[in-house]
Design a protein that fits this description.
CATH architecture: Alpha-Beta Complex
Structural class: alpha+beta
Helix content: 25-40%
Number of domains: 1
Number of helices: 3
Shape: globular
Strand order of the largest sheet: 1-2-3-4-5
CATH topology: Aspartate Aminotransferase, domain 1
Number of strands: 5
């Protein structure tokens, strides 16, 4: 039986990272990924910051710079927007890292829902900020 092929493209690496999470965190990241692609169809996704303590790395979505990271933690999925402090957030999605000077985050816990329209607007705003 042949060995399973190692993921090669950045999108395949993100696929593999999500597949490794066979629980609500994987489903959450998959949903966030889909919403992000709807908001910014030419978004670039990759895995960054691989190290011995985190060999799978961190999924990152970029468009002319990092938009946000999607870190699966034990009890949450943390979406950290690189320039979140500069973004308008009328729906109040940011609920973590609110004191950070540059970034802002959304912590999603099992069972949490996210306003899809507001999230896509936030992703588009982050892309527009990076392009400006």
């Amino acid at each position: 039986m042949p060995a399973e092929a190692e993921p090669e493209t950045p999108s395949e690496l993100v696929d593999a990272r999500i597949a490794d999470l066979d629980d609500w965190r994987g489903r959450t990241l998959s949903r966030i990924r889909g919403l992000t692609k709807q908001a910014v169809p030419d978004v670039v996704e990759e895995i960054k910051w691989r190290k011995p303590s985190n060999p799978s790395g961190v999924p990152v979505w970029s468009h002319e710079g990092i938009l946000f990271t999607g870190e699966p933690w034990k009890g949450k999925v943390k979406l950290t927007f690189a320039k979140g402090a500069s973004l308008e957030d009328p729906a109040g999605l940011f609920n973590a890292s609110l004191e950070a000077r540059v970034s802002r985050a959304i912590d999603l816990h099992e069972g949490d829902d996210i306003d899809e329209g507001a999230f896509k607007a936030l992703v588009r705003a982050a892309a527009e900020l990076n392009a400006s």
